[in-house]
Design brief:
The complex is a heterodimer of chains A (87) and B (215). Chain A is mainly alpha-helical and 87 residues long. In chain A, 72% of the residues lie in helices and 0% in strands. The longest helix of chain A is centred in the middle third of the chain and has 18 residues. Chain B is an all-alpha fold. Chain B contains ten helices and no strands. The longest helix of chain B is centred in the last third of the chain and has 24 residues. The chains are: A mainly alpha (87), B mainly alpha (215).
């Protein structure tokens, strides 16, 4: 197995259980390939961090990368005020 | 924790919790909602979609739905978590509505980025380096998300859709296949390509802005 095949399987391992044979092939390749070891770590790190992404949006550690326009804000506020049942 | 919210003393009686929910979320302050959460929600929607108008519409629909269901807000989760969970449903519904074109998803042409990532003999074409030593540090985490967001927007649309559904919305692969009417093999290929591109983009942008390099 080469890096290309291993990279594909490493990605799949994040989405489905691999067969024993596939796992052994990966392990053997990783034993002799430092770049694929790094690749695997990077994908795992990415997945772990993204598992907390929504939480980050909620607690503010993920900053908004874009903003609602002033017009959109005004429009939404107007619609909400018209529908506000408490008013 | 939040010092501004006028938290009532312990909710001892049944109904008191409900009353508190009414005051926390239900005391409807739509103007504040939009100011406090509008940008975060819009950004979240824009990670999934390329169309500003649609994203604005989904945010608006979310606020309207939240307003109509303010009684359902229990006050356990933060206000923003509650709004984001409604927004997620709106986004997924939208994707379900617009992506019923099986042939669009089935067509997986060669990906130039995938081809260039490997040499002819299948080995990585350029070194894959270690990222960071301590991913837990808050600052690095913040920077990580900033770089990730920028890289995500650079993904081709299809890859962006499957990746955000899988990793941001945390849908299972079965759910995504059903939603988009695609095979799991197609999905795996697309997720692999998305990850390959993202890691390359992040490595390029991130390692170049390691602490000490200015910026």
């Amino acid at each position: 197995m080469n890096c290309k095949e291993v990279a594909e399987l490493v990605s799949q391992s994040l989405d489905r259980p691999l067969t024993l044979r596939q796992r052994l092939c990966i392990r053997y390749h990783l034993w002799k390939c430092e770049w694929c070891v790094c690749y695997k770590k990077q994908l795992q790190h990415l997945k772990e961090c993204l598992g907390q992404f929504e939480q980050g949006v909620c607690d503010g550690s993920v900053q908004p990368h874009c903003a609602l326009s002033d017009q959109a804000k005004a429009r939404i506020k107007k619609i909400l005020c018209e529908r506000d049942p408490s008013e | 924790m939040s010092k501004s919210a006028p938290v009532s003393p312990v909710a001892a009686e049944p109904g008191a919790a409900q009353e508190q929910a009414r005051t926390t979320a239900g005391h409807l302050e739509p103007e504040r909602w939009v100011e406090e959460h509008g940008d975060a929600m819009f950004s979240y929607a824009m990670l999934h979609l390329r169309d500003t108008e649609v994203a604005e519409e989904l945010v608006q629909d979310t606020f309207v739905a939240a307003l109509a269901n303010a009684d359902g807000y229990q006050g356990r989760a933060s206000e923003r978590s509650w709004l984001i969970s409604i927004l997620k449903h709106k986004i997924i519904d939208h994707i379900r509505r617009v992506s019923r074109r099986r042939e669009y998803w089935a067509d997986l042409e060669d990906d130039a980025a995938e081809t260039s990532a490997f040499r002819d003999d299948g080995h990585f074409s350029s070194p894959v380096r270690e990222w960071i030593d301590n991913p837990q540090q808050a600052l690095q985490q913040k920077e990580f998300y900033r770089v990730f967001t920028a890289c995500l927007q650079g993904l081709p649309e299809k890859l962006n859709t499957v990746f955000t559904l899988r990793e941001l919305d945390q849908l299972s692969t079965e759910e995504i296949c059903k939603l988009l009417d695609i095979t799991s093999t197609n999905l795996w290929v697309m997720l692999h390509r998305a990850r390959l591109r993202l890691r390359r983009c992040m490595e390029a942008r991130w390692l170049d802005t390691e602490p000490g390099s200015g910026a």
